[in-house]
Design brief:
β12, α7 and β13 form a beta-alpha-beta unit. The chain has ten helices and 14 strands. An eight-stranded parallel β-barrel has the order 7-8-9-10-11-12-13-14, surrounded by five helices. Strands 2-3-1-4 form a four-stranded antiparallel sheet. The structure holds phosphoenolpyruvate (PEP) and manganese (II) ion.
Length: 334
């Protein structure tokens, strides 16, 4: 349920109303927009007397939210959420460019790539340390050592770092990680989501291989229900019958998610296509469709990458993509 307050409502009135609603056992979310304040209520709202609420002087309208996702719902929070990450932020007017290797392989590799992507305009460095591979015989990542290498690259370049978690027991290794990624395969690992809800770390939540947008938003809701509202949604392609591409990028997910939710939406054209040649056109399409950012795999030697070489861009190709993206962003501002 949401209550939209009249523009002149004072902070004291908002505080009194919020305490009264909390006393009814509800979670209260206050979102102050440019003109109106919206009070979002989560929990058993059947106890609330709607007529009483609407009868209050300060209340303009009261609406029940029919969607099962509440905290992630744009109706709860009409303005875009902006998530602070180190020296940068994700969402709103800021454009986020995350780049780096699929997997951290060694210190020289990650340092070389980090320096190159920063020079090309990346705002964050990615790199997998715990890798969810289809085969148990494939490279599984450098684990804690990989995270240490990312932290060194962050110290040298100043870029905040993004890396994937696969097990909540590893959380203590992520203290200096700026954004924790939940990969497609773990989007519905509800115990992991609940654990991440108890942290205050920004979470990059990737859409599952065969999940609907509603399911993605419900997974975000799991994290938010625990108190962590710092969530970045990521469209990374879904399974379809097409085999020429690794997945099918759902470009329509971008405006749809932006309409349904206030959370930032970024796009991963690398895993969406599985093909380096397709990364640039899909990156441009994503930006034109309203993505708040991109996450792109970059390798200094794609032919010898331990993971996802065929979809990895060289630093030079990444610089070209970054340039084209800037042109599209500038054109969209006009
Ligand atoms: C990744 O980003 O490293 C990754 C494994 O992607 P996804 O979870 O989207 O497959
Ligand atoms: Mn990868």
């Amino acid at each position: 349920m949401i209550a939209v307050l009249k523009p002149q409502t004072s902070d004291k009135q908002i505080e009194n109303l919020s305490s009264w609603l909390k006393a009814q056992g509800l979670d209260v979310h206050i979102s102050k927009g440019s003109t109106h304040t919206v009070i979002g209520l989560v929990g058993d709202t059947s106890k609330i007397d709607e007529d009483l609420l609407i009868g209050l002087d300060m209340v303009e309208t009261v609406k029940r939210i029919s969607e099962p996702f509440k905290s992630a719902n744009r109706k709860f929070h009409p303005d875009d959420s902006v998530i602070s990450v180190g020296n940068t932020s994700v969402g709103g007017k800021d454009f986020t460019l995350i780049a780096g290797p699929c997997s951290v392989e060694n210190e020289e590799q990650v340092m070389e790539i980090a320096t190159a992507v920063k020079a090309a305009g990346a705002t964050m460095l990615r790199g997998g340390a715990f890798k969810p591979r289809t085969s148990p015989y494939d490279f599984q990542g450098l684990k804690a050592d990989g995270i240490e290498m990312l932290i060194k690259a962050k110290k040298v370049t100043g870029l905040p770092i993004v890396t994937e978690i696969m097990n909540a027991n590893h959380l203590s290794l992520f203290d200096e990680v700026d954004v924790i990624q939940v990969g497609a395969r773990n989007m519905q690992n509800f115990e992991l989501l609940k654990e991440l809800g108890r942290t205050n770390k920004p979470i990059l939540l990737k859409r599952g291989l065969a999940n609907t947008l509603k399911e993605l938003l419900m997974s975000a809701e799991y994290i938010m229900a625990g108190g962590n509202e710092n969530i970045i949604l990521c469209e990374r392609g879904i399974r379809t019958f097409e085999t020429y591409t690794r997945n099918t990028l759902d470009v329509s997910a971008i405006p749809m998610l932006r309409e349904l939710s206030h959370l930032p939406v970024i796009v991963d054209p690398s895993h969406a296509t599985g093909n380096a040649k397709l990364v640039k056109p899909m990156a441009m399409a994503a930006v034109a469709a309203g993505a708040h950012g991109l996450m792109i795999e970059v390798h200094n030697d794609p032919a010898h990458a331990l993971c996802d070489g065929p979809q990895s861009l060289t630093p030079a190709a990444f610089a070209e993509v970054a340039m084209s993206v800037r042109k599209i962003l500038a054109a969209m501002e006009e």
